[in-house]
Design a protein that fits this description.
The chain is of the alpha+beta class. It is built from 13 helices and 13 strands. Strands 3-2-1-6-5-4 form a six-stranded antiparallel β-sheet, sandwiched between helices. It has a five-stranded mixed β-sheet with strand order 8-10-11-13-12. Helix 2 packs parallel to helix 4, helix 8 runs antiparallel to helix 9 and helix 9 runs antiparallel to helix 10.
Length: 466
């Protein structure tokens, strides 16, 4: 309503002005009405402008066309005059509105464009800051991102500075794959190409190899993933990151050197202990006692060796059994070991090794391994049909001389039934039955095995099946 009120005000002003100027404007009846139509259309829109056209037109018709004070049309020129007024005034009102709308649209478009430019500039600034932070992080980590284009067989790098520090100053932003391969150590090249092909086929991969930079051998680690494929599924592009792994590799080598040195020193210490024991028992103990003591030290040393080969990160149960019983397996065709592959923690591995040594020593002296045709079976399985899964290990002798329960428990029996049971947190029972010695070991699975993941392999069965 405000728009129409404004149009009425403009029309009234134009009519009053025309009446006031009537003595001076003979023959130009609508001269003040055309500006009013254009002004009303521009300020308030085409509908308000048409209202002003009608009000001014009827006022001019009534006061200035034909007989004054009448709407009669007596001559054709009067009708033409009215027709031309309404046509021209309507065009001015509509045209002014269109010009105003066009100007408004142009202004809004400019504002939108400026806003888009501001947003785009802000996005660019954020991207530049993010890119700068990423570049700083990559340089701190001595890493460089890359994109491998399989169609051109070229590699595009993200940072020349890091690339030059990593692989040499003669590499450019875009490097041919063959040129990059020329940096790889000749001893690693074939394996690197095979691993790269496997990674491309799998869609992702992690590779390590040595490169030669200015005559210096360095280690690198590359991680990549295929990010673009053709319609037939063949890879087109792979992106990833390559970092300098030299310091980590040197640290690992140094760590391994320290472990080897520690192992050597422990073995020397054990040899010294063995020598001291030999000298100590030389006059005060029998040869049997000395042999038993030395055998236990040697068993401890073999278990230590097995763990050292794996950096004390666990060892397979089969290897523990094999290392502890190896001195007694010569000529014993009936020695059988069977069970799922399990990685035993380092602490219980030592205790199990000593236990198997005691059992094997007893079998070689008095049991199945003391006569031809005797046999020893060592089997284990995981029992999951209990609230807490158990690792069940069974030692059983057969084919040896008939035995009877001992009158007095020796060191070996005490080591098994007390020491081993406490160490494993389970049950250990040695049975002296006429067919041969049988040892049953039941211990919590998660306490012995390095991972709590249950093995998928099937086991040998209960002790009664042994």
């Amino acid at each position: 309503m405000k728009r129409y009120g404004g149009a009425v005000g403009i029309a009234a002003t134009a009519i009053l002005l025309r009446i006031a100027l009537d003595p001076f404007l003979e023959g130009v009846q609508f001269i003040t009405f055309f500006p009013a139509a254009a002004l009303a259309g521009h300020l308030y829109g085409r509908r308000a402008g048409m209202l002003a056209v009608l009000l001014c037109g009827f006022a001019g018709w009534y006061f200035f066309v034909g007989p004054h004070g009448s709407f009669l049309i007596r001559t054709a020129p009067q009708a033409v005059t009215l027709f031309l007024y309404f046509t021209i005034a309507s065009a001015l009102a509509v045209g002014s509105d269109m010009l105003r709308r066009g100007a408004e649209r142009e202004h809004l478009a400019k504002l939108a464009l400026e806003e888009q430019r501001d947003v785009a500039e802000e996005v660019k600034q954020r991207f530049r800051r993010s890119e700068a932070r990423l570049l700083l992080a990559q340089r701190a980590a001595r890493a460089v991102a890359w994109e491998w284009d399989f169609e051109t067989d070229s590699i595009r790098w993200s940072d020349l500075k890091t690339l030059h520090e990593l692989a040499g100053d003669d590499l450019d932003w875009v490097t041919g794959f063959e040129q990059w391969c020329s940096r790889i150590h000749p001893d690693d090249l074939d394996a690197h190409l095979k691993e790269a092909a496997a990674a491309v086929e799998a869609g992702r991969g992690i590779l390590e190899c040595r490169i030669i930079k200015d005559g210096e051998v360095r280690w690198i680690e590359a991680t990549g993933e295929v990010v673009e494929r053709a319609r037939d599924g063949s890879p087109l592009k792979m992106t990833g990151i390559t970092l300098d792994a030299t310091e980590r590799r040197l640290a690992q080598q140094h760590q391994q050197l320290l472990i080897n040195e520690l192992n050597h020193r422990v073995k020397n210490t054990l040899a010294v202990v063995q020598s001291l024991a030999r000298q100590t028992f030389k006059a005060a103990a029998t040869g049997e006692a000395r042999a038993a003591f030395e055998g236990r030290l040697q068993s401890l040393a073999r278990a230590h060796d097995a763990l050292t080969r794996r950096n004390w990160d666990g060892v397979s149960l089969a290897e523990v059994v094999g290392a502890a019983t190896s001195p007694f397996q010569s000529g014993a065709d009936g020695f059988a070991v069977d069970g799922p592959e399990l990685q035993i923690r380092s602490e219980p591995a030592i205790s199990l090794a000593m236990a198997f040594h005691e059992l094997a020593t007893n079998a070689a002296k008095y049991g199945a391994l003391s006569v031809p045709g005797g046999a020893v079976e060592v089997r284990w399985r995981v029992d999951e049909n209990v609230p807490e899964p158990l690792l069940k290990i069974r030692w059983r002798e057969s084919g040896g001389p008939a035995i009877a329960p001992p009158v007095r428990r020796g060191f070996g029996s005490r080591l098994l039934e007390r020491g081993l049971a406490t160490e494993l947190g389970g049950r250990v029972e040695v049975l002296f039955i006429p067919e041969g010695v049988s040892c049953e070991i039941d211990a919590p699975f998660t306490r012995l095995v390095r991972s709590d993941k249950m093995p998928g392999a099937s086991s040998a069965g209960e002790a009664g099946a042994l």
